[in-house]
Amino acid sequence: MNREAMGEAPVGVFDSGVGGLTVAREIMRQTPNEKIIYFGDTARVPYGSKSKETITRYSRQIVRFLREQRVKAIVAACNTASAYALDEIEKELDIPIIGVVKPGAKVAAEATKNGRIGVIGTEGTIGSHIYSTYINEIDPGIKVLGKACPLFVPLVEEGLWQDPVTDEIATRYLSVLTDSGIDTLILGCTHYPLIRSTVRKIVGEEVTLVNPAYETARELKELLEKEGLLNGKPQELGSNRYQFYVSDMADKFQTFANSILKYGILSAKTINIENY
Description:
By secondary structure, the chain is α/β, with parallel strands linked by helices. The chain contains 13 helices and ten strands. The chain folds into two domains: 3-99 and 214-275, Rossmann fold (3-Layer(aba) Sandwich); 101-212, Rossmann fold.
């Protein structure tokens, strides 16, 4: 494929379910000419409680599917997959792949004034210590405090973004971080921007919230520009520029996606990811 044709190829984005749609939304906003093929592993969500070996196997299967769609770059829009599988998969690919952890870690390290950063995420992401590893490479003096919030993903997937139950659970999870004096908090799961207002209410205005979805889309744009792969051709109305695939529950996914993507999605196709 020549460079111009490569530029017009889609970007692959994958997540354990619907959380990665917050990353896809930012990519749509920041690089409006790009085509996107999104895969949500809705049959096997959540990833956060599974082992490194399982997450790596799942991620390899998804990458094989996305390669079959002739994508030019891949975004692992899942913190757990970024933490557990990205380094191994990157070695196996001849196209660029980026995750959501490094961009968020970099911005948090730049944002903190008192050197105390909180990270909320799944058990897998927090247990991997991936954020503290990256942040301490930038500045070994920064103290990183992690808190697993396993109930946030099901609450978000049930659409309980602003609900007393979510408020109560968030207060329990976040109090340990606010009591420790953090001045920066990384939303270390792509589901969490959807409950950003709840988190903001609990941690207060003085804590800087870092949304890795926004930072990842920015890094993708820089990467595509550097590699000469940014699509300079505006997409025609009605063109099939955004395609969505899932491993289960396409109707539920479609309803959810339409609630957070202003572009709207016409359909989500179900595929058997175990075939890859």
